[in-house]
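Hello again, I could really use a second opinion on something today. I've been staring at a protein lately and its backbone has me curious. Can you walk me through what the tokens say about the fold? Take your time with it, there's no hurry, and the full record follows here:
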Amino acid sequence: MNTKLLMSVSAMVMAALGLVASFVPREILISFGSKPEGLEILLVQVTGALYLGFAMLNRMARGSLIGGVYGRPVASGNVLHFAVVALALSKALIAGPRPPVVIVGASVYWAVCVWLGWVMFTHPVVVARQGD
């Protein structure tokens, strides 16, 4: 299993969400029909910072062996994040019609959650590099 690709995809998704949430929180709130006020804007920016921190963790851990014993903390933190957000987005979809971005987000989050779960609960396989 190519965990380098998985961690890179995870890092890119989180970095994109983090950058958007950090720099355009007011526009995000308006697009979802909320009235942007001080605390809501701050909460979106804090969430963006959390996403950026997770993105950096995944980017730096992409060369490590994910799964098994030593990479389990990184994998379990990612699985928990992606599972909880996927469930929240799915619950929102069940509650009623939502913008297409919520459907796409739920699909992406479920896909990455399953992929990370697979990596976390299987034994990692070391792939030999050329020249080793």
About this structure: The chain has one domain: 3-120. The chain is about 75% helix and 0% strand.
